[in-house]
Predict the 3D structure of the following.
Amino acid sequence: MSTSRAAWAWPAGIAAAAAAWYGAESLRHRREQGDGYDLHGGAPAPGDEAFLHAAEALTAAPISVGNEIDLLINGDEIFPAFLETIRGAQRTLNLLTYVYWRGDIAHDVASALCERARAGVEVNVLLDAVGTAKMETGLLDDMRAAGVNVARFRPPRPYAAKRLNHRTHRKLLIADGAIGMTGGVGIAEEWTGNAQDPEHWRDTHVRVRGPVVRGLQGAFAENWLEATGDVLVGEGHLPPLEPLDGGGPMQVVRSSAGMGDTNAEALFFLAIACARERLDLTAAYFAPRPAFVQALCDAAARDVEVRVLVPGPHIDKEIVRVAGRAVYEELLECGVRIFEYQPTMLHGKTVCVDEAWAAVGSVNFDNRSFALNDEATLCVQDPRFAARLSEQFARDLEVSEEIRPGRWNGRPRTHRVREAAAKLARREL
């Protein structure tokens, strides 16, 4: 073999291996070629029991009734409830997070966990190995010394490089199997405060009590089992949960990477396809593939008021924003309204349909959430909760800039080039 041919052998081999890997993965993304979804049998109204039956059948997530829920906006509301939930645990405490970085809140949460462990509470903490890479190692040492069971989810391994692309993006806290929290918040200084400046992010979280907590516990237990081999059972983790007065039907939909369409994709398509009056979507990372662009346009064609709220100039992953902007023109032309949040990074992930059904969780409107990561979202069919979420959406729109079709179409050619380039990477975003 000549020197020149030998020099090209390794790069060619690596390229061939990468192409084979990408091709194998493409089985998961059979709809990337533009094939969309169709809803057969009629569209149930999001406030009807038939909609719940459809969501349950598509996702295998059981519907429970008799649940209470608190809507929590930004760190000033979220973290007091978060710490209160930790400090109130008597038997078990399970925490799963994608982000655990730095700041006073990182120390406050660690201290509360350590105090509960020293008091005899079984404390299990599961950290995504990639998302928590910036965490202070001293906090881990403190937790373990106090008796906290700490595990990392899918740490990098040379023999398992492929799984680096599949993370757990879930954010879960469950105390005594009876009180649960989920949403978009990470444990870091960025999430503290009240979205008052670019250093303090805007996010949404919820706290629930009632039978639906078992779904949150299941989402934690699934990832904990993979990371540790331990199956969490017994009344400390799975106590009897009686229905509470006044709560609406809820379900916890969890989603994991796999062949074909995931639970998150099925759920979001169902919600969009069944909308009749209004669809409000808040997405921290918005880079939809063709099937969901079409679904949003189809909703607008049915005279549904479709409003999409996404980050503006303050975003931690600029490539996602650029890739998302590549579909603005198509969405605007079909009647979808798009708003970019101006004050700070918008990290919330919520959907509200017809002020009757809503979802709050970790699912973004991109391929990473729909097909690559493990996710969890809490779904609520309750006009009162949906109204509160809608009121917050309206407040967010007041400090957002609406993208106007005429002005957008006149943007510079250099912007269009960047968007087209970023769109090529959409499958991994």
Notes: Residues 28 and 261 are 7 Å apart (CA to CA). The mean pLDDT is 89. DSSP finds 14 helices and 17 strands in the chain. The two ends are 40 Å apart (CA to CA).
